[in-house]
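Researcher: Let's do a round of design. I'm pasting the structure tokens now; please hold your answer until I've finished.
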């Protein structure tokens, strides 16, 4: 998880938590009870930068060899996404990857597709499971969105920003 509040929210759903220290980093390992089985979950608070998350992802793969890895975090969505909704990425663009010219920028997106089997499992679970809306502070029912994600180390807080316009022009996502 990129920020502490996300880490604590995931941790609140685990039981039988124990610490695992690998090369000076502390991970927590706990059990999560699903509808039909239990899962072993390894959690780590990484910090917000994509480079930190990539580094920790590589370390988790090396140390624990997980079957599946999931980034759990709060999204800064602008299109059709409201607070409390869940976004499941089908692919992710690294929008920072570009070439700068004297008068403009040309996008050179790095594109990562997510595992189709994992996406199919998520859709199957959502069809057969009642979505827990208990932590939603509004009365609105949370929605689940599947689609592309643009990821970078810059937070977009305005539709008038040059980065927002860049993403809209080059990625057609917003």
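Researcher: That's everything. Go ahead.
Model: Designed sequence:
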């Amino acid at each position: 998880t990129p920020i502490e509040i996300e880490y604590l929210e995931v941790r609140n759903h685990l039981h039988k938590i124990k610490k695992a220290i690998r090369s000076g980093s502390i991970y927590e390992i706990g059990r999560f009870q699903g509808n039909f089985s239990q899962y072993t979950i390894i959690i780590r608070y990484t910090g917000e930068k994509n480079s930190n998350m990539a580094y920790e992802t590589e370390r988790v793969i090396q140390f624990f060899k997980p079957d599946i890895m999931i980034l759990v975090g709060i999204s800064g969505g602008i299109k059709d996404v409201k607070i409390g909704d869940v976004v499941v990425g089908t692919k992710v663009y690294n929008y920072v990857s570009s070439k700068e010219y004297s008068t403009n920028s040309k996008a050179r997106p790095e594109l990562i597709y997510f595992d189709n089997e994992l996406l199919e499992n998520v859709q199957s679970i959502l069809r057969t499971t009642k979505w827990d809306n208990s932590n939603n502070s509004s009365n609105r029912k949370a929605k689940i969105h599947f689609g592309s994600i643009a990821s970078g180390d810059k937070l977009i807080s305005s539709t008038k920003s040059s980065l927002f316009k860049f993403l809209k022009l080059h990625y057609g996502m917003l």
